[in-house]
Amino acid sequence: MNLKSHLSIIFIAVFLFSFTLSNIKVLPFECPLLLENEVTTQHLGYITSYNHTHHQPNWVAYTLTQKKLNGVAERTNKFLVDPLIHPETCNTKDYSKSGFDRGHLAPAADMTWSLEAMKESFYMSNITPQRPQFNRGIWKKLEEQVRQWARTTSALFIVTGPILKGRLTQQIGKTHKITVPNLFFKAIVDTNQIGNGIAFVIQNEGSSLPLSHFAITIDSLEKLTGRNFFYTIPQKKQINIEKKYNLKHWKLNN
Prior knowledge:
Layout: H1 3-22, E1 41-42, E2 47-51, E3 56-64, E4 101-104, H2 115-120, E5 127-130, H3 132-150, E6 156-162, E7 171-172, E8 178-179, E9 183-190, E10 196-203, E11 215-216, H4 218-225, H5 235-243
Antiparallel strand pairs: 1-2, 2-3, 3-6, 4-5, 6-9, 7-8, 9-10, 10-11
């Protein structure tokens, strides 16, 4: 083989390596490790993994900062099919007269920093069926608590979603059959004090119990969901974050 042939082979190898690297999808720090055949869709304010079997997100991930909470974008209340996802997501009519709220995973109140982010928070790739007493009660309380935390730190990494495992017997929807989850989760890491993480798992029903009652370790959530959360954080820090939670740090004493 002559020198020209050697150089050609080297050039092709470098090109293919570079092409492969350029096509690796680098996910944001807040995203969990993807399962086999799992696909994500990136929007301005959040990234989502949509489940076409259950017609709702597997999870939604985003970063929340104090600055993002100082915006003035108003809530739109206009629920839309996600234009970036094919086959298409369910539509808002699938929830009509179902008795379930169109429950946000990345809350609209966390998206006031951008008109575009606010609009996209109403895509059905961010929506899941929640009982009104849950969505407007304990879940809203948790969302408000998360915003309070975000006001006192650099940034929060947040992953939230339904737990689409176990016996799921109820469905809603006319065009699409949407599974009603029994449980919802939220996992949070405080980037200001990277050793602090916490997770919550709450039944899809009303509750007057304090948020501390629903707090668990991220390790426990990983076992429950079969997912690896915050896997991009260095291993030693990740172990420290996920094996325990500190109610004193999160100011959840009741």
